[in-house]
Design goal:
This protein is mostly helical. It has helices spanning about 10-20, 25-30, 50-55, 60-75, 90-95. The longest helix is centred in the last third of the chain and has 16 residues, at about 60-75. The protein starts with 9 loop residues before the first helix and ends with a helix. It binds zinc ion.
Length: about 100
């Protein structure tokens, strides 16, 4: 875990991971039961998504995909590039939490 990214990029990461989570509706469906509102479904304790994976309600391969995408996002430097599509992201998940 020596290369765990620092938390300085989390603000931008939050926007992008919200968009990422929108692509996994079965995660969104259970995420309301996660202990933490901003749960990334990775290392957090009491994560409903991980519980659903363990229970077979969510396919392990889907979760693996999610982890891979998330790692790619996290590995990116927090640079504000021109191509990002933040404007297409509505903060719906935060509003309902
Ligand atoms: Zn979670």
């Amino acid at each position: 875990m020596a290369d765990t990214p620092g938390f300085s990029s989390l603000e931008l990461l939050d926007v992008e991971t919200d968009a990422l989570r929108d692509r996994f509706p079965e995660f969104v469906a259970v995420a309301g039961d996660c202990k933490f509102r901003g749960c990334q479904h990775l290392q957090e304790p009491h994560c409903a998504v991980k519980a659903a994976v363990a229970a077979g309600q969510i396919m392990q391969s889907r979760y693996d995909n999610y982890c891979q995408f998330h790692a790619e996002l996290a590995a990116r430097k927090p640079v504000y590039d021109k191509k990002k599509k933040v404007e297409s992201v509505t903060p719906r998940l935060k509003a309902e939490a």
